Amino acid sequence: MKKTLLTVLYTCSSLCLFAQSEKVKGLKDYYQAYFPIGVAVNPRMVNAGAESSFIIKQFNSLTPENSMKMGPIHPQENVYNWEASDKMVAFAQQNGLKVRGHNLCWHNQTPAWFFKKDNRVVTKEELLARLKTHIFEVVKRYQGKIYVWDVVNEAVPDTGLSMYRKSKFYEIIGEEYIAKAFEYAHEADPNALLFYNDYNTESKAKREKIYQLLKGLKQKGVPIHGVGLQAHWSIDEPTQSELEESITKFASLGLQIQITELDISVYPKEHERRERRENDGVGIFTDEMEQKQIQQYKMVFDVFRKYKQNITSVTFWNLSDQYSWLDNFPVTGRKDFPLLFDKNLKPKKAFWEVVKF
Fold this sequence. Notes:
By secondary structure, the chain is an alpha/beta fold.
């Protein structure tokens, strides 16, 4: 009887110790043998407090969500706002996190002054000079502190036959601006990894355009090391086959693949902004949404692990369901629940599915 009791106590003790060890493990610890796990953050999150401690526990890479984009960091020709980015890079260095730089050239947050001079549109040569100056200033400031840069962001259109988005960079410079941006970044920091970053990379038509763009850059000897799949997905897309086709196609170019902005919306995928409708619901995370999200997260992480030789980082876009950019896109004011942690920073059921392997 005594022996049986001791056995039971030992077993219970062992299980309790296991449970305690599981509680202290962060998401990064489960994936230590696979790839870094990152998160997009803003300056407020790295202040001493619950969120900063949570970042350190769960992640080993971070991406400044907005502060390094051209508009926020370079609002006027001779003015740079370094404070927010410096703060996040310092936090990362102090706590052993890698940093993804995001981003150097993106049509959507380029300040208006960048394309004007003396009340006229800049010439091709003037715009290239400004682009080079911007990239040199930003990349050199963080040389040795940022290991990878999203150099060009979203240069390919979603629809139509055109290979290139009709941005002002394209209209003034032509397709050459893409290669030049990579060349400038490489010159500024020869040791940094340089990525092209885009969304809807699982859409067959857009994927083919991106593939041809990257293939052309490689053939020209442009210094490009990888492609970022933004991974703004939903509970109903992509399918496993669509995701695997994208990974294998881009990997065939000899490029690294990083998942750069992962979230999984609980609503069916929509690609255009629209006004809220009466049937959009009241922002409740239903059991049906939860189950579909669990299965989608399980599927994508099964695929990520399968292709661990090609995937070199996975980054979530925001920390928890307390805040997500999807709360205001595509529908303004519609609460979404796209991440692995709830508004109180507690793991959701999808988290436990992602680490169960």
